[in-house]
Amino acid sequence: MGLFRRESWNVGLLVILALLLALTKAVQPNYGAAGFEGLAQAALPFAFAAAAQAIVVIAGGIDLSIASMMAVTSVTAAVLMEGATEGQAVWIALFVLGLGAAMGALNGFLIVITRVPDIVVTLAMLYVWEGVALMILNAPGGGASEWLKALPIGSVPLPFLPESVSSFIPKALLFLLVCIAVVWFPLKRSKLGLQIYAIGSSEQTAFRTGVPVRRSKVIAYSVAGLFAAMGGLVLTASTGIGAPIPGPYLLASVAAVVLGGVILGGGRGGLIGPIIAVFILRLVRTILTFLAVDPNVTTIVEGTIMVAVVMAGGVLALRGRRRKAA
Amino acid sequence: MKKSLAALTAFALGLGLPAGASAADYSIGVSNTVQGNGWREQMICAIKAQALSSGMVAELNIAHRNTDAAGQLEDIRNLIQAGVDAIIINPSNPDGLNAAIQEATDAGIVVVAVDQGVSAPSAYVLSNNQEEYAYLGAKWLFEQLGDGGQVVYMRGAAGASADSDRHDGFHRALAEHPGVEIVHEVFTGWQQDQGKQQILDFIATGIPFDGVWTSGIDNVIVDAFLESDTPLVPIVGADNAGFVGMLSSVDGLVGAAVTNPGSVGGAGVTLALNILGGEMPGEQTVLVDPALWENQSEAGMATLAAAENPNLDPEWPVSVSIPGWTDYTMEQIIACKGPGE
Span B252-281, mean pLDDT? Predict the structure, then answer.
């Protein structure tokens, strides 16, 4: 039943996304492959932030330091890549991914060792990582290797598809799907993945059934750090530089997680829902731009959608619980 | 791009006008990444007022929100898709937007960066000279202190390029006045409340200081001195209406305002329309140089008195227009209405 409900949520999100794409096309008949590519590029950093937040929320926590970790990894990559060869840049990218995982693990360690609530520890780490980012680079700067910059640009030519179709498969989207698939699907199917869901459902029950609660939690935060590092790398890729001031990814990641069907409180949901949710939220912004809506009204509309979604999600979760109780 | 838009508009109106028949149907996009700051709001209003008074703009498409360089890339790409003829940007970063700017100019869209420059070679830049802005004010302040003393250095937003340019200018002046020391350095984030709290906190420490340089968060600093009964020291700010008024009205305040017109946005509209009309500027980059208005000479006081404008919001720069670049009226910019509004 839980599985069915989760999938139906994702199907629902896809239907919303399809309707919004149709609406976009109606508003702007020229909207096509280039527009979709722009959408995928814009969604990329938000999608990684949402993936990072989702896994922590599934594990019963919350990470307020995601945007700051993205800033740290982005400036680290930008500083190291400036003047580095294309080959060295590959090692730099791998180092930055490792750095992200280590930062996330540190968040997790602090939570399990100090027993201070997740929200407090990661709020503190938000400021710590923000300061670290500014220490590494006090103003936007640095560089990016050419292959990294090319990563989200263009579409993927597939031999078995005509160009008119393959131009609708942006590299940014494919890159996102590959990264998520490589990390998330093996994890979700593993014992560790089950343990992460278990501690999110009920830490106490998980502990009594022999789940290593602390270890699972640290790993969940570490994977979140890894996704945040991917987000930082795509920021460096798209802008060609590193910027030390965190972007608007924290609240957007929470919004996408909630809209994506991950229950705040833990134990239920996945990564696909939040990622579709990111595309929906970006597309709303695109439509509002096409309609030349007053910019001050735009944020009200965006905020209203988020509130409506959170409320709808809460109502659905409540009904689900009642059904279970009955 | 423009033709298709014009055709679309004509189709929608059912008028069947030939595409591009009239010059008054340009569509201009705007991308700005700081919202809720008086300077930026004036910039947006100047863009609207100039678009309206030019009579050549049918529609403004304004993407105006708080975001980062990646978010600005998204906005620029959305504006490209929206089919605008020109995009005016206040860049969040000089280097981070090159990919989208290139895509825009490849699509035949004129890109004008205002306030801060961009490194994309295909964009036109109409910018306030931020390095000179800080240098002028800092140099004046250090001279007031007799080339020696302790200065509180209240910067803008950490990591913003206008802030780092100003930092360079500030340090150029500092190098010329080796007797001056920075006793305290903070980032106000260009937020009024934050800046006021920071100076109150520092006053409370009791550490002596002789002058304050601000990156445009100015009137609230004077307020903080007055409200805490602290003896005034020389203060440098920007030409914001509130601060300019204080320079002539507050007893014992020694200070100077450095101009940093938000109306540069309106000038950007004029430049974009000129280029769309085939009239290319001589230079790819046009810098607007700042001026310093101080209240220690009669000439300075006269300039301040002439610039004063109580009708403006205290956080708005008083330089509401740029001669030769903008031709809207004071009423138009205060009304803040664009074409079709």
Answer: 93
The percentage of residues in chain B with a pLDDT greater than 90, rounded to a whole number, is 67
A24-63: per-residue pLDDT in tens?
Answer: 999 999 898 889 999 999 999 999 999 999 999 999 999 9
CA distance linking residue B325 with residue A63, whole number of Å:
49
Distances A168 to A31, A157, A162 between C-alpha atoms, Å: 11, 10, 11
* Beta carbons of A248 and B97 less than 8 Å apart: no
Once rounded to an integer, what is the mean pLDDT over residues A296-322?
74
- Taking only the tens place, the pLDDT of each residue in A165-175 is 788 889 999 99
The ipTM (two decimal places) reads: 0.87
Rounded distance, CA B29 to CA B268, Å?
Answer: 11
Contact B82 A290 (CB under 8 A): yes
Q: Would you give the distance in Å from CA B5 to the centre of its chain?
A: 31
Residue type, A209: T
Q: Tally Cβ neighbours within 10 Å of residue B191.
A: 17
Contact B78 A285 (CB under 8 A): yes
Tokens describing residue A89: 């840049």
Partners of residue B80 in chain A, C-beta under 8 Å: 34, 38
B304 touches chain A (CB under 8 A): no
B73·A289 Cβ contact <8 A: no
The Cα–Cα gap between B237 and B215 comes to 6
> What is the CA A136 to chain-centroid distance, rounded?
24
Domain ranges of chain B: 2-128+261-289+319-335, 130-258
Residues 6+ apart with CB under 8 A from B130: B116, B162, B165, B166, B169
Look up the CATH superfamily of B2-128+261-289+319-335. Answer: Response regulator (3.40.50.2300)
| Interface membership of B157 toward A (CB under 8 Å) | yes
Q: Which residue has the tokens 């990016």?
A: A144
Indicate the average pLDDT of chain B. Answer: 89
Identify the bridge partners of residue B112 per DSSP, sorted by sequence position.
B88, B124
Residues of A in contact with B35 (CB under 8 A): 295-296, 299
User: What pLDDT shows up at residue A314?
Assistant: 67
Please give the model's pTM, rounded to 2 decimal places: 0.85
Of the candidates A139, A243, A286, the beta carbon closest to that of B68 is on A243
For residue B36, what is the nearest residue in chain A, using CA coordinates?
A: A296
Instruction: Return the closest-CA partner of residue A96 out of A188, A275, A216, A234.
Output: A234
Q: Do the Cβ atoms of A134 and B159 come within 8 Å?
A: yes
Strand B292-294's sheet: what is its strand order?
Answer: B180-187, B149-155, B211-214, B235-238, B255-258, B292-294
For B130-258, the fitting CATH number among 3.40.50.2300, 3.40.50.1000, 3.90.1150.10, 2.60.40.10 is 3.40.50.2300
The verdict on a CB contact (< 8 Å) between B96 and A243 is: yes
